[in-house]
Design a protein that fits this description.
Blueprint: H1 2-40, H2 47-68, H3 76-79, H4 84-119, H5 131-158
Length: about 160
């Protein structure tokens, strides 16, 4: 249990840190594009495209940390009024399918990235390969699935409430 917690916590923090770096790079790209357009009458080719890829990566990579810290929206107001046993049943009914769904999403994103890599598909404007961004989002969803699973395990072994 402690090993799983250490791995999931380390991965989610690392992915969140990477998301922060990508977000800062996105902001720098947008500012550079605006300044280039305003001062030099020259914009950066593919800025819109790259911002889209970077934003997808930021969201995908930051999900796990949010899930681990329970920063997501929950039905706490309603569920807290129920008995503890019923709360655990609801958590099982909600979180087990959520873990399964997140794993399916991660796997299908991985397959999509592999297809893009195999076919050599590139972005239309800059001709940039973008399957690494799909892989990043897939990995983010996989770590989110681990975070939800970890929270569920912790609740049933340590009495922690989702």
């Amino acid at each position: 249990m402690r090993t799983l917690e250490a791995v999931v916590t380390g991965l989610s923090r690392g992915l969140d840190y990477l998301a922060g770096i990508i977000l800062a790079a996105t902001a720098a790209l947008v500012v550079a594009n605006i300044l280039g357009r305003a001062l030099l009458n020259q914009s950066i080719l593919g800025t819109y495209e790259m911002v889209g890829f970077f934003t997808a990566a930021v969201v995908g990579l930051a999900l796990a940390r949010c899930g681990l810290e329970k920063g997501h929206i929950a039905l706490g107001l309603i569920v807290e009024k129920l008995p503890a046993g019923m709360q655990k049943v609801i958590d099982l009914v909600v979180n087990i399918p959520a873990v399964a769904f997140l794993i399916v999403v991660a796997y299908n994103l991985y397959l999509y990235g592999a297809t893009i890599a195999e076919t050599g598909e590139v972005s239309p404007t800059t001709q940039m390969i973008f399957y690494p961004f799909v892989y990043m989002v897939a990995f983010g969803f996989f770590v989110l699935a681990l975070a939800v699973l970890l929270n569920l395990i912790k609740q049933f072994t340590g009495g922690e409430r989702q």
